[in-house]
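Re: beginner question about structure tokens

> Can someone show what the tokenized structure looks like for a real chain? I only ever see the sequence side.

Sure, here's an example I had lying around. Input first:
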Amino acid sequence: MTPLDESVRTIAAVLSAVGATVIVPKLASALWKAVTGRPARQRREIDRVRSVADDEAYKRRLAEEHASHLRRLAYEAPCIRVEDIPPWPTYHRKKEPTDDETP
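And the corresponding structure tokens:
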């Protein structure tokens, strides 16, 4: 057996002892993600979805404030009876499906 064969066997034994069989694929996966730019695309998509949600929430708050202002004007108007003003709507959250309700 040559010294090179012994060195290769020693390196293989050390790598298997330190868990290189787990580390090397993870490093390769991380390198592949960095090369393809997948994390950046995911981050941009998450930012876009959050921006859409923020815009919707902002518009909803504006509409609620405007409705509140109109409601106060209606209460103060002498030509409208308070009983004729409908109650403020309640918000019902959509029920999250449980595991047994999913199709």
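Each token stands for a local structural state, so reading them left to right follows the chain. Residues 16-82 form one domain.
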